[in-house]
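Job type: complex structure
Entries:
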Amino acid sequence: MATSRRDFIQAGATLALGAAFVPPAPAPSRRSPQPAPGDPLPFRAPPMERVRIGFVGVGGQGTTHVENLLSLEGVDLKAICDIDESHARAAAEKIVAAGQPAPTLYTRGPRDFERLCAEEDLDLVFTATPWEWHVPVLLSAMRHGKHAATEVPAAMTLDHCWELVETAEREQKHCVMMENCNYDRFELMMLVMTRQGVLGELLHGEAAYLHDLRSVKFAKDGEGLWRRAWSMTHNGNLYPTHGLGPVANAMDINRGDRFTTVVSMSSPSRGLQEWQATLPADDPRRAERYVLGDQNVALVQTAKGRTIYLAHNTNSPRPYSRLATLQGTKGIVSGWPHRVHLEGRSPGHGWEPAEKYYAEFDHPLWRSERIQQMDRGHGGMDFLEDYRLIECLRKGEPTDMNVYDAAALSAMVELTIRSVRQGGKPQQVPDFTRGRWAKFPQWPIVSA
Ligand SMILES: NC(=O)c1ccc[n+]([C@@H]2O[C@H](COP(=O)([O-])OP(=O)(O)OC[C@H]3O[C@@H](n4cnc5c(N)ncnc54)[C@H](O)[C@@H]3O)[C@@H](O)[C@H]2O)c1
């Protein structure tokens, strides 16, 4: 019964979207992990003077990355790939205007990135394509001897998470998930406060992506061309990493602790249906059927027994929030609005504005004028993530986020979907490091 309903939904979705991609409903994982490599240290590649980059997918977010990369020392943007030739040409114009040679363009359809990976002499392939293309681009890049970086989430299934891990290990390449929210000012202050012990022992975190995207999902360009389709086949947390990344870093996930168990439930699915009902009667999108619960909630437990509340809602009217909360034995920091309460410092049972604490606990990456005045890329955090990626590659250091982080954070997509489907049943989180999480060193505190 469940299967035939899914088939029906998929058929309906395909019909409604014409030739557009409809993501398949997730199947059970059949992959069994390979033994871990013996090296207890995180992967590092030889340093490089300049980083030659091929960029795949230059829509909204890809263009921000291209602009950031053009403003950094030691970057050559050699090739651009996009299925929309006008997007590729617009990126090429920016590259030429920045004084670099015109890049080679790859615009011959949805698999032309394979030609880019095979033919171009590059150090890094970076993708900001729709979700369904992240893994194919990353795998093609690594198999052709390039480091790989992707927008979030890196992967939408557990099998794909394992495939990224195994390919990065086999090919000895970086596979980086570019989680910009790890670099926002408040989240980096949370990390500094944790490391300095002012929160005491961390017990609990709260993380979310709560962003009313109804108009974006129904737009006739950009994410409207692909994001809504996922709501027709998947019911869980489709976008877990923005909230979870910074909480995971503060809790040393994959570096002393790890996610072990997840339970998840979804609310009814209403927001897209109500929006759809306002479309003209002959709009083909009125035939679409959505299954994504508007609110998805999950509880994650770690090996050290910590708890994390993880939520997703992109279908309801509400102000933006990532929650960004850490509760320790000596205090709490909490986002939207950004607040702090420290025992012995804050007024009894009262919040203080986070601004009061930046003078003392601002992360070194946020102390430069250049970053504080950055006006593109979500207020500077996108610049910082690109800056750090290039710096790590040029210096031959481990990247801030590695393939195990990409897998552990992205795994929440399928794990929440499975738990929802099984009535909230606990799901075991795979240990993508295969034991090395206990030995890997902490995320470094670095300066710009
Ligand atoms: N980190 C953030 O804050 C943030 C913000 C927005 C989007 N994103 C992520 O960035 C990615 C892209 O989102 P967006 O908003 O830029 O979407 P978008 O639709 O604006 O851009 C996607 C681009 O990829 C191109 N494309 C599609 N399929 C392709 C293929 N097979 N080969 C080459 N190009 C292809 C499209 O033509 C388009 O130019 C998504 O993974 C999204 O989750 C992240």
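Summary: The chain has two domains: 51-151, 182-366+402-438. Residues 403-421 form the longest helix (19 residues).
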